[in-house]
Amino acid sequence: MEVMLTVQELEKSFKDKKALRNISFDVRKGEIMAILGPNGAGKSTTIRNIMGIMYPDSGSIIFHNNNGKEIPRHKIGYLPEERGLYKNVKVMDILLYLADLKDYPINKAKERALKYLKKFDLEGKENVAVEELSKGMGQKVQFIGSILHEPELLILDEPFSGLDPVSQDLFKEEIRSLANKGTAILLSSHQMNLVEEMCDRLFMIQNGQKVIYGTLDDVKKEYANFKCTINGKNERSTLEKISHVHRVEQNNDVSVLYLDKDVQPTTWIKNLPDSLVVKELKLNRITLHEIFIDVATDKNLLREAGEANA
Ligand SMILES: Nc1ncnc2c1ncn2[C@@H]1O[C@H](COP(=O)(O)OP(=O)(O)OP(=O)(O)O)[C@@H](O)[C@H]1O
């Protein structure tokens, strides 16, 4: 896949605080690349450096759709973490103003704005002042403003925060559809379930450093991969003796068995001992949420499960 943006060896300090260390990744045409990490990890600092809002101490940011030169602002869409539109301006006026800043033809912008307002359940709001909108509605307008000019690279910093589940789904569908049409998307979000459903690849930062980078599937394979949840009264020692069980967590009669990586799930299930008490049994892949917690809290229990067998 064609690379749209390359971030190379970014370093950034604020006084004596090192916010980014050797941050390198790329974003490709038609993919959703998630940038993840706990609060204060360095996601927004990375994005602000990409957007030229601040400059790195060292490292480079290359926009391949602009021969690697300056930021091609008219080809980039950006939804910043800090929301804010001019309050006393009408919705359509602000959208057309934003499109004009990107040199996008006004008639086309108007047509697209009406289409998107309808899609985002804001039909008829074009002449309403921004200050009269709810927070979620304002966010939808700002999101529309970031995509109206058909950007090739779209950077979304926490697009889902403050949205109700219906609006989250609308955003999710639109972001996916933009990627399918070829937009390169860099998405920062704390909603792991949404990221898991949407992203193609992910880059996770902790304390300003890379901890994970790859496709969702590769990342899961690198960690514990599968877990088996058994509802039934079983002795921990019995469960620990089952082959390929790396770790057991128990809560009353529910046991979670984390399996070694590369385990073949159907074979593993077939070889479970007949003596096992099972009222209910589920075999799932571990979730991105679990990986995130494991990494962010420095437990590294899931990674050990992977490395034990590596
Ligand atoms: N302008 C600034 N001046 C000083 N320190 C800053 C500044 N901006 C960010 N930092 C520090 O840099 C680190 C990274 O912050 P950043 O906002 O990039 O984190 P984040 O991953 O986006 O966090 P969150 O999920 O909370 O939005 C933090 O320690 C933060 O305090």
TrEMBL record:
Gene Ontology MF term list: ATP binding
Residue ranges of every copy of the ABC transporter domain listed in the record: 5-232
InterPro entries: AAA+_ATPase, ABC_transporter-like_ATP-bd, ABC_transporter_ATP-binding, DrrA1/2-like_C, P-loop_NTPase
Protein keywords: ATP-binding, Nucleotide-binding, Transport
SMART domains: AAA
Family the entry assigns: Belongs to the ABC transporter superfamily.
UniProt protein name: ABC transporter ATP-binding protein
Organism: Ornithinibacillus salinisoli
